TrEMBL record:
GO molecular function: D-glucose transmembrane transporter activity
Transmembrane segments: 21-42, 79-100, 112-133, 139-160, 172-190, 202-223, 288-309, 324-346, 353-375, 381-408, 420-441, 447-470
PROSITE patterns referenced in this protein's UniProt entry, alphabetically: MFS, SUGAR_TRANSPORT_1, SUGAR_TRANSPORT_2
Stretches assigned to the Major facilitator superfamily (MFS) profile domain: 31-474
Region feature Disordered, mapped onto this chain: 501-529
Localization per record: Membrane
Main location per the UniProt record: membrane
Topology in membrane: Multi-pass membrane protein
GO biological process terms on file: D-glucose import; dehydroascorbic acid transport
Cellular component aspect of the GO annotation: plasma membrane
Protein name: GTR9 protein
Entry-linked PANTHER family: SOLUTE CARRIER FAMILY 2, SOLUTE CARRIER FAMILY 2, FACILITATED GLUCOSE TRANSPORTER MEMBER 9
Top-level taxon: Eukaryota
Amino acid sequence: MENKQQSNGMTKENNAVKKKVNWSGSLILASLTGAFGSSFLYGYNLSVVNAPAGYIKKFYNETWERRYGFSVDEGTLTLLWSITVSIFAIGGLVGAIIVTPIVKFFGRKCTLVLNNVFAVAAALLMSLSLLAGSFEMLILGRIIMGVDAGISLSALPMYLSEISPKEIRGSLGQVTAIFICIGVFTGQVLGLPEIFGQESRWPFLFGAIIVPALIQAVILPFLPESPRYLLLEKHNRSMAEKAFQRFLGKDDVSHEIEEVLAESRVQRNTKLVSIVQLLRTRAVRWQIVTVVVTMGCYQLCGLNAIWYYTNNIFSESGISRETIPYVTLSTGAVETLAAVFSGLVIERLGRRPLLIGGFGLMIIFFAVLTVSLTLQNTVHWLPYLSIFCILAIIASFCIGPGGIPFVLTGEFFQQSQRPAAFMVAGTVNWLSNFAVGLLFPFIQAGLQTYCFLVFAGICFAGATYLFFVLPETKNKTFHEISQAFAKRNKVTLEMQEMNHYPAERKSSEEQESNFTSSVDNGETKKGIV
């Protein structure tokens, strides 16, 4: 009851004191640098294989013929290309699985810095594959680049959610989505025939990956680690205060320190939970289900299918092959603008309207696109309607479903649960990504113009679930969000606070005494790590 009164008092204090949140230089630089070397590269690698697809297939065929004395058959070539595209997701799954121990040991920021080793290695393998005459190097590079993306898409949202004040947590969290969009657009621009979209230059498309990786590796080490990680996991109060001061741009951070310590008292201890422990915790059951649904719909709603096979879709819409690279630029531009718009309005409109509304609009435009593609040979202007629908689907995705799932994963869980939660989210994300990349060509071949109705159905299912289950998390602390789920999880607030670690719970007096001693001395106590 004492913890509940402290929490209610803090909530009243937060509501009574409305402070203007300043975007400090360190906060802006950390978010931009972190995203440029992480989510930007994820988006870039989604689109970079699109423009040189014909040249890469030709390279595969020539390599095969040189080795075995005959050309590769069409079925094998299609399989090799599908593997090249979708193997990126397998690497991402590996990265999502190994991210939890990495962020625990090295911290959020250092994980992002060290992750650039994967990006540089992948860039070298892929860019030198043509010179070496080995398509295996390209496929291996795609796997390694996937590992980089899998780690960064968990570590980056975790880092951003922990360094940002709750008043701008949604806007800062959308930086992940914005840079994914910018990465997609950059891949499209560099893939133009006038730049690297030529038979002799396509390896430079993959070599360019080194640039964002090196920029992040140089700048990010000079910025602070997550203050919540420093305080709750490393128990170093002095370093946490310095990190808060730099990120918030003010000297007095006692309120922020106390807010984090209040969360630690609610949790009883700060030992990181495993995935099994997380899944067994009744107090977060519906949070986990919601993360699985949002992450699954994020990939299965069909947008990545559009990115992977944009050229084919535009070709089916009647656009000439010479014009396609330039028309494709409009998709990246629309995606970027929509993501920026979402970042600007998310703290005003909230997560629910953007997420549910985005899925709702996608359902409408998928239906119209299906009709347009089915009848395009009968009416001369219908191909243009198909292009409009594709742009509208992309915009609808980016205003909500494209970035908010990452924000919600960071908001739903307490500090000790967050790494395991991101591992669950990442696993669902990358398995779904792999499934779309591998199965969409066959779905398209089997259903023809009706293939997008499958994605419309997934969007409908996701929107319906979120309408009935998802609470609004705007401007709420992590503890307040847990309270919002307490009734649906069928636990009282006291049970929720005590259920985080049923097998390892200590008395609150002993735990709080040990933790306070630990953070005051800036040392790690083995008893509570």
